[in-house]
Design a protein that fits this description.
There is one protein chain. By secondary structure, the chain is of the alpha+beta class. It has one domain. It is built from 1 helix and 4 strands. It has a 4-stranded antiparallel β-sheet with strand order 1-4-3-2, with no helix packed on it. Strand 2 and strand 3 form a beta hairpin. It is rod-shaped and about 75 Å long. The relative contact order is 0.18.
């Protein structure tokens, strides 16, 4: 009976370990160099519309858990302003 429990426990542990392996497949991007150039693939963008004037659009938009930085703003056809924010990945 003990052997059956040990084999069942070992099998379940092995299955859980193998099923979690894709989570460890890609390591995080870490750069020790201070002169790292950001490419287009390293930037995520977000459009936010409905602003009443250009003066009320904030330069930094703290949208949890990231800070989004204003890159462009334009006047839409309906008279409101749309802002383009970006953040490094």
């Amino acid at each position: 009976m003990k052997l059956k429990k040990v084999l069942t426990g070992s099998t379940l542990s092995l299955v859980l370990l193998v099923s979690a392996s894709p989570a460890f497949a890609e390591s995080p991007k870490v750069s020790s160099s201070n002169n790292h150039a950001i490419t287009a693939q390293d930037i995520e963008t977000m459009k936010v519309g409905g602003w009443k004037s250009r003066d009320v659009i904030p330069n930094i938009l703290p949208f949890a858990p990231y800070k989004w930085y204003l890159k462009d703003a334009w006047l839409a056809s309906d008279g409101t302003w749309t802002a383009l924010y970006a953040r490094p990945l």
